[in-house]
Amino acid sequence: MALLKKINQILLLLLVLTVCAILYNKVHQVPLALRNETVDLESPEEMEEEIPVVICAAAGRMGAAVAAISSIYSNTEANVLFYIVGLKTTIPHIRKWIENSKLKEIKFKVVEFNPMVLKGKIRQDASRPELLQPLNFVRFYLPLLIQKHEKVIYLDDDVIVQGDIQELYDTKLAPGHAAAFSDDCDLPSTHEMVRSVGMQNTYMGFLDYRKQAIRDLGISPSTCSFNPGVIVANMTEWKHQRITKQLEKWMQRNVEENLYSSTLGGGVATSPMLIVFHGKYSSINPMWHIRHLGWSPDARYSEQFLQEAKLLHWNGRYKPWDYPSVHTDLWENWFIPDPSGKFKITRPDS
Predict the structure, then answer these.
(1) Residue 223's pLDDT is what?
(2) How many domains does one find in the chain?
(3) What predicted TM-score, i.e. pTM, was given to this entire model?
(4) In CATH, what number is assigned to the domain containing residue 163?
(5) How far apart are CA 267 and CA 284, in angstroms?
């Protein structure tokens, strides 16, 4: 009897403790439904996808990178992370420029590119030395610079983005394709520009078909080329297919055999990509890469056409921060002056 009484006392004590615990939770703790809602809001699945955009900041043309970044940031609500790639000597300048301008609100990482990776892989050519600058080859090494992203956008610095970068990021890559580019024959509106300034838009303009190594590729010289100034890349496929190693192989072969040179259409950075990606790339919407704005100081597109364009590219010799050049107003809309005063726009009255 005494044992039964003791058991009842214990059960009663447990019941009291349970009731107290329930009352304490109601008074002092956040309701379970609310706690779940908070967790959901912070979970990775609900977070906005990060869009990595790679842009180089080269000495003498950092204003180009700043204008490109400014145009992207101003025309999207997307969660953009800028990877700004520079050499050791230029990194302090571009960092100071961003941190002391209205771009201080952007998300960015400054990445140093070591030009030693190019040793023995570039054939010196005096006709267009600017094409041999180390940062022209950053696009070859994207997986070495960008570690945590599956999909990456690479942009040349001489572009202005007028559309929402989210649209470009949403470009679909076919299974097995490591990258998407713009075909040089993709937009009838640009054909007249190509003819008027004598530009090349086939492999004949980039590779030396007198060389046996080029003929052995089995690529027709009339095949339409593509422009690697705007790239949407799949890093998993890039690494799986060892794209960087393939590009380096053709760089080294050019050093030994002079298979292409900067006297041809795209210099030494485009040609190896044309070889490695031949028949193995997806296409970017043509309006997301309106190019050739820098090929002539006189040839112009219609203003209506340029207003409809999502991305403008001043590829060629005549850059919008120099003189002479065309459509400079569209570029200057996004330019942010250098707080240090080192970079200046060149104009007739300057």
Answers:
(1) 94
(2) 1
(3) 0.84
(4) 3.90.550.10
(5) 22
